[in-house]
């Protein structure tokens, strides 16, 4: 009977050992191999790719852009997504379910289709977004969105927004409305209730949403590839180019492994911070 | 609980407009009667939907995506059910580590998985094959299948099984007549969520699909890279329509909130 759980897990374990762990290990190895235009991949152990990725200013700039985009996407998602989750949570029955579906539904709609929508909205100087912004008098000349970081940030914030709403929503479900009522009964204004009662309690939700959004934004592919075009490279589109255009697989593998390592470090660090700071909330 | 003020409702309206705008715009442009991208106002046309029929690569990519999603989700569920029963009902050494391993495709960027699979499949001779696509999709959708089967395995009332045993049912009868029917809703919703995720997967698949094994998202992405014309908007509109129908059915049948909120809970913890 003791072996039963292991036997039950065996099919999944075999699959993951063979099709996840081995390929990932091979990718790490690949990043140490040599490559030449005519000789192809040579299975030797050298640091050339890592020296290039860590030392070349082109890669510094590209990684800085990747994480800058991810940072602003996370910021936008937190600033706009968290209040929306709060508003949703205060809605009444039919509306609440309906709008939850409307806001979370896009998560399951093809990323290519959603990004295409933004490409159409941005579309050059005559795009709808520029027309709307100028019509409201917010800007006097059209802003460039296509092929810019701004455009990537806006489109990615839209693509990843549901994850933030979802994370904050989940933390709001654990909130006791009686605490809010108590604060109101004791004379707190609505703003004080938000700042002193609600915000501290949903902060772990915002942070865990931020970790998800940041990780997905830093490794996003379709949106930066379509909105950023061929020139404005981020880590994922650069790795794609190395693998499928220049065919320098070892260099592409080094970029991908570095991205993975950086993300693991950031996620792990943030989780430690959240757990230490908010231990009492999770308890 | 207090109600939302007018300011909150105005904010909510803008937010919903932001979320829906790009999706609606794609569907709007798809009905253009012109030969170029434009927003039809007085004249509408289905010519770009009819044009899809003249591009067999979109049609074949659609069927391939459908089969890929159906097969890989079915296998993922079949693998998840025993794993979920083990994780949900037993306390054993390595339980946490195994769960983390099976959930790891959620946290490993699909870009990294795509690269790893490209190298791996090329080495073992599965490069660019449908079998390779199925294997890789099983891995990335397994967490969704496992999450929902696990939820139903944990929530299972074991006294019903005990009752069956005490009434003389054998182990296989208990499994077939009691346990599996009880986890069936979790199984079906797990399959559905896995299917949608497989159907939409691009980042990983774009690395391992070759001409001839391109899925619909890959075909659409490669098309957009070359040029954006009304054809790709009408294809996208069809994809959106199919997803929305699936979403509404799923929401009615299982409650989208439960499926997705359960999905977020183990992220980033």
UniProtKB/TrEMBL annotation, chain A:
Membrane topology according to the record: Multi-pass membrane protein
SUPFAM superfamilies: MetI-like (SSF161098)
Family matches, as InterPro entries: MetI-like, MetI-like_sf
Origin superkingdom: Bacteria
Subcellular location: Cell membrane
TM annotation in the entry: 7-32, 67-86, 98-123, 143-169, 205-227, 247-268
Family annotation (Pfam families): BPD_transp_1
Secretion signal, residue range per the UniProt entry: none
Keywords: Cell membrane, Membrane, Transmembrane, Transmembrane helix, Transport
Residue stretches making up the ABC transmembrane type-1 domain: 63-270
Gene3D superfamilies registered for this protein in UniProt: MetI-like (1.10.3720.10)
Family from the record: Belongs to the binding-protein-dependent transport system permease family. CysTW subfamily.
Protein name: ABC transporter permease
From TrEMBL, chain B:
InterPro entries reported in the protein's UniProt record: MetI-like, MetI-like_sf
Localization per Swiss-Prot or TrEMBL: Cell inner membrane; Cell membrane
Residues of the ABC transmembrane type-1 domain: 62-250
Major localization class: membrane
Keyword Amino-acid biosynthesis: no
Keywords attached to this entry: Cell inner membrane, Cell membrane, Membrane, Transmembrane, Transmembrane helix, Transport
Topology of this chain in the membrane: Multi-pass membrane protein
PROSITE patterns per UniProt: ABC_TM1
TM stretches of this protein: 7-31, 66-85, 97-118, 124-146, 178-196, 231-250
Protein name: ABC transporter permease
UniProt organism field: Reyranella aquatilis
């Amino acid at each position: 009977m003791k072996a039963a759980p292991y036997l039950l897990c065996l099919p999944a374990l075999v699959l993951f050992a063979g099709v996840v762990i081995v390929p990932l290990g091979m990718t790490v190895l690949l990043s140490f191999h040599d490559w030449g235009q005519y000789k192809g991949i040579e299975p030797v152990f050298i640091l050339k790719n890592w020296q290039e990725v860590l030392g070349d200013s082109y890669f510094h700039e590209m990684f800085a852009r990747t994480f800058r985009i991810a940072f602003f996407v996370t910021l936008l998602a937190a600033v706009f997504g968290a209040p929306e989750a709060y508003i949703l949570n205060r809605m009444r029955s039919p509306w609440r379910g309906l709008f939850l579906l409307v806001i979370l539904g896009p998560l399951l709609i093809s990323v290519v289709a959603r990004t295409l929508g933004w490409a159409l909205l941005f579309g050059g100087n005559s795009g709808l977004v520029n027309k709307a912004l100028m019509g409201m008098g917010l800007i006097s000349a059209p802003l460039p969105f296509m092929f810019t970081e701004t455009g990537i940030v806006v489109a990615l914030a839209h693509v990843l927004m549901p994850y933030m709403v979802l994370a904050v929503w989940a933390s709001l479900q654990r909130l006791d409305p009686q605490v809010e009522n108590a604060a109101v009964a004791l004379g707190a204004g609505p703003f004080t209730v938000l700042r002193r009662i609600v915000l501290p309690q949903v902060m772990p939700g915002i942070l865990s949403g931020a970790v998800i959004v940041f990780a997905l934004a830093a490794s996003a592919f379709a949106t930066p590839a379509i909105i950023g075009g061929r020139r404005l490279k981020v880590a994922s589109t650069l790795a794609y180019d190395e693998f499928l255009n220049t065919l320098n697989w070892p260099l592409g593998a080094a970029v991908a492994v570095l991205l993975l390592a950086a993300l693991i470090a950031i996620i792990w660090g943030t989780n430690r911070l959240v757990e230490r700071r908010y231990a009492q909330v999770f308890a | 609980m207090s109600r939302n003020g007018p300011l909150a409702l105005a904010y909510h309206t803008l937010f919903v407009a932001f979320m829906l705008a790009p999706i609606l715009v794609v569907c709007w442009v798809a009905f253009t009667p012109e030969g170029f991208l434009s927003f039809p106002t007085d004249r509408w046309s289905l010519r770009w939907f009819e044009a899809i029929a003249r591009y067999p690569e979109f049609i074949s990519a659609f069927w391939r995506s459908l089969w890929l999603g159906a097969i890989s989700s079915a296998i993922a569920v079949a693998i998840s059910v025993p794993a979920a029963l083990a994780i949900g009902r037993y306390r054993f050494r390595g339980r946490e580590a195994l769960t983390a391993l099976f959930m790891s495709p959620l946290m490993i960027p699909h870009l990294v998985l795509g690269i790893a699979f490209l190298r791996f499949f090329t080495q073992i001779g599965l490069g660019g094959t449908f079998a390779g696509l199925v294997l890789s999709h099983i891995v990335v959708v397994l967490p969704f299948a496992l999450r929902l089967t696990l939820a139903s395995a944990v929530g299972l009332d074991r006294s019903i099984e005990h009752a069956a045993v005490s009434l003389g049912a054998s182990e296989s009868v208990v499994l077939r007549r009691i346990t599996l029917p009880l986890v069936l809703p979790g199984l079906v919703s797990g399959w559905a969520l896995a299917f949608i995720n497989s159907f939409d997967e691009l980042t990983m698949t774009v690395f391992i699909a070759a001409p001839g094994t391109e899925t619909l998202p890959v075909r659409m992405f490669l098309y957009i890279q070359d040029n954006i014309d009304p054809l790709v908007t009408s294809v996208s509109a069809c994809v959106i329509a199919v997803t929305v129908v699936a979403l509404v059915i799923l929401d009615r049948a299982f409650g989208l909130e439960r499926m997705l909120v359960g999905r977020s809970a183990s992220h980033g913890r």
